[in-house]
Amino acid sequence: MPVDFNGTWNLVSNDNFEGYMVALGIDFATRKIAKMLKPQKVIKQDGDSFHIHTTSTFRDYVLQFKIGQEFEEDNKGLDNRKCKSLVTWENDKLVCVQTGEKKNRGWTHWLEGDDLHLELRCENQVCRQVFKRA
Ligand code: VL7
């Protein structure tokens, strides 16, 4: 049985989001707003199909993918760069590699106790986010 990420999740901690945004080239004014946000994630998982909706008072982001199937990601409303993204299982972790202009870009989701973890990577920066069930 794969891990079940289904649910509504609220951000409770956000370590080095600033460094991650700088690595993505997000401008100062946008970073100032973005780091105040407490985004919510709604994850719908059906077998190997995922729908992840990240919402906030400032911007929303929708990501849909199937495990093992590379897709074009446009990162619209984030850094707006396009990349090729591929999500795979690594044991019980959901690992995404985002191939494009930025080196070492990607993210990993996993569950730890009742918490949802998300590590966001870009170049030499790592942002660590923790979410709790709404
Ligand atoms: C998405 C933000 C910083 C621009 C706005 C911040 C709005 C709310 O990719 C992500 O999640 C994956 C895994 O769950 C699924 O898409 C994280 C947040 C990264 C990057 C760029 C700042 C402006 C945040 C949408």
UniProtKB/TrEMBL annotation:
<comment type="similarity">
    <text>Belongs to the calycin superfamily. Fatty-acid binding protein (FABP) family.</text>
</comment>
<keyword id="KW-0813">Transport</keyword>
<dbReference type="Pfam" id="PF00061">
    <property type="entry name" value="Lipocalin"/>
</dbReference>
<dbReference type="InterPro" id="IPR000463">
    <property type="entry name" value="Fatty_acid-bd"/>
</dbReference>
<dbReference type="InterPro" id="IPR031259">
    <property type="entry name" value="ILBP"/>
</dbReference>
<dbReference type="InterPro" id="IPR012674">
    <property type="entry name" value="Calycin"/>
</dbReference>
<dbReference type="GO" id="GO:0008289">
    <property type="term" value="F:lipid binding"/>
</dbReference>
<feature type="domain" description="Cytosolic fatty-acid binding proteins">
    <location>
        <begin position="7"/>
        <end position="24"/>
    </location>
</feature>
<comment type="subunit">
    <text>Monomer.</text>
</comment>
<dbReference type="InterPro" id="IPR000566">
    <property type="entry name" value="Lipocln_cytosolic_FA-bd_dom"/>
</dbReference>
<protein>
    <submittedName>
        <fullName>Retinol binding protein 7, cellular</fullName>
    </submittedName>
</protein>
